[in-house]
Amino acid sequence: MPLGTWVGADDNAVMGNNVETIERTEQPIAVVRGRVQPDGIAEFLGKAFGDSMAVIERQHLHIVGAPFARYGLTDDSRWDIEAGFPVDALPVAEGRVLPDVLPGGTIARILYIGDYSAVGAAYETLMEWLPDNDFAPSGEPWEEYLDQPGTPNPRTEVYVPCLKQPVPQPAG
Question: Is 146 exposed, middle or buried (0-12, 13-18, 19+ CB in 10 A)?
């Protein structure tokens, strides 16, 4: 798929060729982890975000960014999901809510606008962009949800930790 504007199946999804790399510091997060069937993702996210917010409030922490989720496909067609919020300090584990960090370093990101069901195109674009620009993935990707649930054509930023690869030099 060439980089450029992409229109999804709902004819309202848009993703430009706005891949960029940024430098980030490691970010403390409060998360809930679970293994979920595809049709249970929305329910899992809602509960994970609610549980995380409750623990963040009880521990007098502050949310410092958008809610996010990291996904990994399992061998049995379910998803391993980690969902929560970036916070100003590591939380103490409480119930289902665990402390973790989003990685620092070089991160490639792209903005996707449209239905969540088609956000996979943003991941595909990033994974094609990385080697074309002498980068390789160096960690698990994640996505941040920039709009409230129910927003038409919500904005989602997709992030992939990456490392610059040496450009091969001609022999001789």
Answer: middle
| Look-up of token digits 């001789």 | 172
Q: Which residues lie below 8 Å from residue 171, measured CB to CB, with a gap of 6+? A: none
- Domain 1-25+103-165 grouped into CATH 3.20.80.10: yes
Cα(12)–Cα(170) distance, rounded to whole angstroms?
45
Structure tokens given for 24: 């980030």
The predicted structure's pLDDT at residue 77: 86
In the chain, the percentage of residues whose pLDDT exceeds 90 is 75
Question: Which amino acid does the sequence have at 17?
Answer: N
According to CATH, the topology of domain 27-102 is Multidrug-efflux Transporter 1 Regulator Bmrr; Chain A (3.20.80)
Q: Considering only CA atoms, which of 135, 153, 136, 137 is closest in space to residue 145? A: 153
From the list 40, 37, 29, 122, the residue with the least C-alpha distance to 68 is 29
